[in-house]
Write a structure and sequence with these properties.
Elements: H1 2-18, H2 32-95, H3 104-120, H4 124-136, H5 141-154, H6 161-174, H7 178-191, H8 198-211, H9 215-228, H10 233-244
Length: 247
């Protein structure tokens, strides 16, 4: 924006130098009427020059306003995208925090077989969306676990496989099954190195290490996040967690 304002000043300076008002000698010979006519022409020329300059100034000011509006619009869109990412990241960690952990004996018979049957007839995208909807829309976290397992088994090479493993790990983590959650997060870290869920998975692995009293392992994982994803939201979480680890 500063560059645009500087450009306005330079253009105005150039306009003033490049298009000076024509000057005529008012004095000299001729009748009084001739001298008055010449004076009127000089005044009109100067007025026209000022009008032209003002028009150029108005056009440049409008351009600055347009650029400012475009910048504000882009900033708003970026903020909306970041907010949506944070919502998706926080949704599963916060929404399920108050849910009681169901026993394996109850969960397995009631949801595993139906989930596999339901997803078998769906497309890859629909199967993934169905599993996500169980979490975000229906809040059926117990059913979401076998749904994600079924999707990962049926579509191991899917473009959604990294996300599915992360969702599965998070659901298992919230239920207290850290051993199985660790396997899901490790799958993301090891097999999907370009995934946007990799830094979050590293953070979760560090948290699991903390729960297992493996402070050195947790520190190493948090530091890995800081090295590899320095400007990410995961890095900020890692920094906070790292500072909270007691020697």
């Amino acid at each position: 924006m500063k560059k645009s304002l500087i450009a306005v000043a330079l253009l105005l300076t150039g306009a003033a130098q490049a298009a000076p008002a024509p000057v005529e000698e008012v004095g000299g010979g001729g009748s009084a009427a001739d001298r008055i006519a010449r004076l009127e022409r000089i005044i009109k020329a100067r007025q026209q020059s000022e009008v032209d300059m003002q028009q150029r100034l108005d056009a440049l000011q409008q351009e600055v306003l347009d650029l400012r509006g475009l910048t504000e619009q882009q900033n708003y869109q970026i903020q909306q995208m970041l907010q949506r990412q944070r919502q998706l990241y926080d949704e599963i960690t916060k929404a399920t925090s108050s849910q009681p952990a169901p026993s394996a004996a109850v969960a397995q018979p009631s949801v595993t077989a139906p989930a596999a049957t339901a997803t078998s007839s769906l497309s890859e995208t629909d199967s993934y969306q169905q599993a996500v909807d169980l979490v975000l829309k229906q809040r059926k976290y117990d059913e979401a676990i076998p749904a994600f397992k079924s999707f990962i088994s049926q579509y191991p090479n899917s473009n959604f496989a990294d996300n599915a493993n992360y969702w599965l790990g998070q659901l298992l983590y919230n239920q207290g099954d850290t051993a199985q959650a660790k396997l899901a997060f490790e799958n993301v870290v090891t097999n999907y190195k370009e995934s946007g869920k990799r830094p979050d998975s590293l953070v979760k692995l560090a948290m699991i290490a903390e729960k297992s009293n493996d402070k050195n392992g947790a520190r190493n994982l948090y530091n890995q996040v800081l090295r590899e994803y320095a400007n990410s939201a995961a890095a900020r979480i890692a920094q906070q967690q790292l500072a909270a680890i007691k020697p």
